């Protein structure tokens, strides 16, 4: 039997302002705060679970429960409380409480609040009354629609106002909107059926004229050609990641909280392409990881990525997740201090190099101690003496000790002596 097709959870909306008529293929009535489906009686709404939290940012590295998200709420007086929310609970936040989001250095949402935001945005993007399916591109959707969602839905539920945060959220909505449109066409359109029959298969929450405009766009020769190219390109992506629905930013933050150090791009690539048992997803993933590790020892991490994977594509940077573009990471940093994101990556590379050098020093020290012990054993049990000029056993104990570090004054004194003609001449006469 064919498997039943699943559709995204629908969020019913009630308008709070008059419908608008943006320029486009159909009249669109923007919507405001959706009304959630009824919640199970055995799961209490979040106000009963809310607790005061004096230190809201102290979170465990992993999600506390798969049934809800543990987040911070801020009221109009700035007071912070901790709450356990499901995505449907966001629609019925009481009073003026808003969810506090946590962001990393690259401007990406992290922790459990970031996970809740991503799930909520998926619901909003599937609400085609706010973002009509009939528009050919996300950029074609009127700004008035996007601003209405930003001000009356996103800012009404989340404590956000920064322009960079808005850019990330709207970009995420656009990606989820495109994915939803593609999924609907793949699941519902049947080439064996007539045009009229395919029109009848439209979801009930999409207007007839919008569904017709969408099907007409998808059946255009230009669109079909572009779709075929995308299918070919996706078929070449034969190294799947293993993060599931968790974003790269949230996974990196989780690892950094557990290890207490910055996670490099090379490490994130290895982590996101390994299974739970530590094995690689396939042989090609193993090969890429080994090449990346080898190249990282010979050059900088950015150069290693270019060597192994090629030049970065516009609009994204590998293993850094959504919202980070090449110009942000590798653009001009001639101004003092560089960009925060560039400093972030430089710090990651520096920490990784320091850790590698420390491990090598420890390994060398252990090997030297082993050699000293073997030499001492041979001298005690086999007799004999060391060749002239060779350090004795007591001196061998100092072989593993590091040389005293030169201070800046030692370096200056040595440098000035080497450039002092009188001192050099005096030294040559003594010789």
Detail the topology: elements first, then pairings.
Elements: E1 12-13, E2 34-35, E3 51-52, E4 69-74, E5 80-85, H1 87-90, E6 98-100, E7 102-103, E8 109-110, H2 111-125, H3 143-157, H4 163-188, H5 195-200, H6 208-218, H7 221-235, H8 248-259, H9 265-271, H10 283-298, H11 301-309, H12 326-330, H13 340-382, H14 393-396, H15 408-418, H16 421-430
Antiparallel strand pairs: 1-2, 3-5, 4-5, 4-6, 7-8
Helix pairs in contact: 2-4, 10-11
Pfam families: Transposase_24
GO biological process, one term: negative regulation of translation
Biased composition (Basic residues): 1-10
What does this molecule look like?
This protein is mainly α and 431 residues long. The chain folds into two domains: 12-226, no CATH class; 248-382, no CATH class. The protein is 48% helix and 6% strand. The protein is built from 16 helices and eight strands. The protein has helices spanning 87-90, 111-125, 143-157, 163-188, 195-200, 208-218, 221-235, 248-259, 265-271, 283-298, 301-309, 326-330, 340-382, 393-396, 408-418, 421-430; strands at 12-13, 34-35, 51-52, 69-74, 80-85, 98-100, 102-103, 109-110. The strands form three sheets. The protein has a four-stranded antiparallel sheet. It has a two-stranded antiparallel ribbon with strand order 1-2. The chain has a two-stranded antiparallel sheet with strand order 7-8. A hairpin with a 5-residue loop joins strand 4 (69-74) and strand 5 (80-85). The chain is elongated, with a radius of gyration of 31 Å. 22% of the residues are buried. Residues 1-58, 332-342, 396-403 and 423-431 have low confidence and may be disordered.
């Amino acid at each position: 039997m064919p498997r039943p097709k699943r559709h995204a959870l629908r969020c019913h909306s009630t308008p709070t302002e008059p419908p608008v008529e943006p320029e486009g293929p159909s009249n669109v009535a923007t919507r405001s705060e959706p009304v959630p489906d009824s919640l199970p009686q055995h799961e209490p709404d979040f106000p009963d679970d809310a607790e005061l939290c004096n230190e809201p940012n102290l979170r465990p590295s992993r999600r506390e429960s798969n049934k809800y998200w543990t987040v911070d709420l801020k009221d109009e007086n700035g007071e912070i409380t901790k709450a356990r929310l499901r995505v449907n609970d966001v629609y019925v936040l009481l009073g003026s409480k808003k969810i506090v989001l946590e962001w990393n250095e690259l401007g990406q949402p992290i922790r459990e609040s970031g996970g809740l935001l991503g799930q909520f945005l998926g619901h909003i993007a599937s609400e085609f009354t706010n973002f009509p399916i009939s528009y050919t591109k996300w950029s074609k959707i009127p700004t008035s629609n996007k601003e209405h969602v930003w001000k009356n839905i996103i800012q009404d539920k989340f404590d956000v106002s920064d322009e960079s945060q808005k850019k990330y959220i709207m970009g995420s909505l656009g990606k989820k909107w495109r994915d939803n449109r593609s999924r609907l066409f793949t699941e519902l359109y049947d080439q064996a059926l007539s045009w009229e029959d395919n029109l009848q298969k439209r979801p009930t929450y999409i207007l007839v004229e919008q569904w017709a405009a969408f099907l007409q766009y998808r059946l255009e020769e230009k669109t079909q050609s572009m779709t075929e190219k995308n299918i070919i390109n996706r078929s070449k992506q034969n190294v799947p990641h293993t993060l599931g629905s968790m974003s790269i930013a949230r996974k990196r933050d989780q690892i950094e909280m557990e290890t207490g150090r910055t996670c490099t791009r090379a490490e994130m690539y290895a982590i996101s392409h390994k299974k739970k048992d530590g094995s690689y997803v396939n042989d090609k993933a193993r090969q890429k990881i080994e090449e990346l590790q080898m190249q990282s020892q010979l050059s900088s991490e950015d150069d290693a990525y270019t060597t192994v994977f090629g030049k970065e594509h516009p609009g994204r940077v590998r293993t850094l997740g959504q919202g980070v573009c090449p110009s942000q990471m590798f653009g001009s940093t001639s101004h003092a201090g560089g960009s925060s994101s560039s400093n972030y990556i430089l710090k990651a590379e520096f920490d990784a190099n320091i850790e590698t050098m420390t491990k090598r020093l420890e390994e060398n020290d252990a090997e030297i101690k082993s050699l000293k012990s073997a030499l001492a054993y041979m001298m005690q049990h086999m007799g004999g003496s060391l060749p002239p000029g060779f350090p004795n056993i007591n001196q061998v104990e100092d072989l593993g000790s590091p040389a005293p570090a030169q201070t800046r004054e030692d370096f200056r004194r040595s440098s000035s002596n080497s450039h002092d003609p009188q001192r050099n001449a005096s030294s040559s006469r003594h010789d």
